[in-house]
Amino acid sequence: LVKSKMAVWSKSLKANCYEIGHTWTPSCTKAILEILLGGIVESVKIYTPVYVVTALARRRSKRYWLRHFVPEVFQSAVFLGTNAGAFIGSFCLLNKLTGMCYWHNGVVCGTAASLLAISIERSDRRGLLAVYMFNVALETLFNMAVARGLVRTRKHIEVLLFSFTAAGYAYLFRCFGGLRGIFLQGVRFLLGTEEAGRPGDSRSLESEANTPAVQRQDARRENFTFSRLVRFLKACLVQKHALCLHQHSCGRYCVQGCARMFGIGYVAQAAITVLSSIRTVVRTPSRLLSCIANKNNLALGAFLGGFVGIFKFVSCFLRWLRDQDSEIHALPAGFLAGLCMFFYPSWSISLYLTVKLGELLYMKGVEAGYLPCITHAD
């Protein structure tokens, strides 16, 4: 068995690049140009809707659409096309230098092509692309290990991973300045501005007692008794806690947030279903209703709606229970809300968000001076 494995790792194939690489043409130059140009054309088709959606979400100005939209799309398309063309070019060059094809040629060629391509892409997108590709590589290696029996999978482990990650994001969201950029916008869109972090966010009834906008409540510390439970249940229906920043009762606040995100999730999944079946819908318009009313569309809505509803419920519950508002509340709220991924399990989402959270925490360590800054790490 050991000998057979060593044979596999040392295996090489004596063949030229035409025989195993660009089999449709014997010319290396022609093959490189065809892949390069074809990759750019296909990349334009991929990146155009991505940039349109991103620009609309960020409410870009008219100046952006006139001056920056087309150049940015083209630059990203050239980046992706160059990656494909440089890969086959590196493969041909390595084959001509060695005269052989080894198992590690893919790693060498992929590295060279990626280094050249990433230098073409905009610098503000390199970090995002690096994290995304690192996530894809991790997922691929994990799936390979599972397929070869090297790793045993546990049911719903991606849900548990997402729950811990959601707790981390929620805590950073509650800390003033914890999240920035697109992640701050995304979490704020999901959870609303009421739970966002503010300066001096750890508040209690004692600290808020002199604030005119907040009604004075009994700040006496009491154990969790039946009377406090009744007070909380009553608050869910008719009132809110003095430390809650939402306008209506806690119950209405939770239900509204849950219903809003459920609707958004359902509409988004229905749109994806319709677009993926657009050819069938064009031929048979009657299928449009079945695509919109598909029960599978409930999954994303249940995930997003349940996540928001549980997070807000736990946050309000802890404020009533402790008569305090602290960013620590975000940890149990985020963890319990993350369990809603049972409705929409996804290894890709869990891994990407976990890797991105690791990057955010590392950068905070760099800013605080605890960790070294690695130049051009992306």
Spans of at least 5 consecutive residues whose pLDDT stays below 50 are 1-10, 209-222
What is the subunit organization of this protein? single chain
Radius of gyration (CA) equals: 27 Å
Largest sheet entry: 2 strands, antiparallel
Number of strands: 4
Percent helix, as a range, is 55-70%
* Strand-residue proportion: under 5%
Order of strands side by side in the largest beta sheet? 1-2
Q: Decide which structural class fits the backbone.
A: mainly alpha
- Judging from the principal axes of the Cα atoms, what is the shape? elongated
Measure the end-to-end span: 40 Å
Average pLDDT taken over every residue: 81
What is the N-to-C succession of helices and strands? Answer: HEHHHEHHHHEHHHHHHEHH
The total count of helices amounts to 16
What does this structure look like?
The chain is mainly α and 378 residues long. 68% of the residues lie in helices and 2% in strands. The chain has helices spanning 2-9, 17-20, 28-57, 62-98, 105-118, 123-147, 157-174, 181-191, 205-208, 226-238, 250-276, 278-283, 287-292, 298-322, 330-338, 347-367, and strands at 12-13, 101-102, 203-204, 324-325. The strands form 2 sheets. The chain has a two-stranded antiparallel ribbon. A two-stranded antiparallel ribbon has the order 3-4. The radius of gyration is 27 Å and the shape is elongated. Residues 1-10 and 209-222 have low confidence and may be disordered.
